Amino acid sequence: xxxxWMAGLLALIAIGCGSNDDTADKGPxxxxxxxxVPEEEVKYVLMKHxxxxxxxxxxxxxxxxxxxxxxxxxxxxxxxxxxxxxxxxLSVANGLDKGADIVLLNELIEERKPNFTTPWMVRKDSGxxxxxxxxxxxxxxxxxxxxxxxxxxxxIERQTGLKANVDYKKVEVPFGQMVETxxxxxxxxxxxxxxxxxxxxxxxxxxxxxxxxxxxxPFVQLLNGCRRGFxxxxxEAMRAFKRDWVRVTRWIADPANRDQxxxxxxxxxxxxxxxxxxxxxxxxxxxxxxxxxxxxxxLQRVDDPGIECRRSLIGVPGSLxxxxxxxxxxxxxxxxxxxIRQCRAQRGALGGAxxxxxxxxxxxx
Length: 365
Known about the structure:
3-stranded antiparallel β-sheet; D-Maltodextrin-Binding Protein, domain 2; 16% strand; single chain; 365 residues; 5-stranded mixed β-sheet
């Protein structure tokens, strides 16, 4: 079913402008919310300090559902078992391709210089000195079908010609087990967002092979997305939720609240506060946009031709984004699912469809 600019514009207006709603909810609306670890401080604060969000408990309530990676949240949105969830800048394309109608409401973190960006690391004694040395090795990914998983496969292939599960073995390892998995040798390379980077780097036993922004700069890593039908059915509640999100982002950005943010993050993630205190909301952390505003330009930009088809799906803000701050004009009426299929067919005809079978049509892969 085509997603037109007018449909996108209506979604933008419905969320951003606070117009009258003839179908206002009679009581608090329950939002089934997917979340994960790490770097989702707005959600952690909503859990620990609901008093920061004055509309929570009045206009809406939140039922929390934790997932190990954004693909499962995208699946939940596609299946209708979640109303909102943390999604990746690339993995959200899977949801669209599977039939989910997802609206992006807020941005959580971005990978960009000079802030922290995720590294892929190997043991210094692994014998791996270049990416070509990964042939016959084992490479860990946090969540197959996630944004970093897509990037990892593509970057290694573009640099070396090596294909995942053909030239090297790929295994799925939760972030909480990644440090031990690489240090023990059960995987030869893994990726380490904060705080796991600080943990493994402190051992002095590893070295960095590449970082995410070696391939995409800047990169919108995590966003909060919701089912468009849910948003349209509960406009007033979702406006209240967006207003609270802005309040929470500003509360987090206030240095006076940093200790409470660290404590809330520790409570949600079960990562010791002392570990989080070393980097959280400091120079060694990811970039967090003011008020959770979505970096539309970065989300649209196709910096990496190897993932062009997936990103072409994302680069249709008229059908995908509900951006705080107003609509983005377009002079076309795009059909994102048709565009992605056409792109994939063209790349296949040109012999360049590297990503066929790598999970675009199935977020579980």
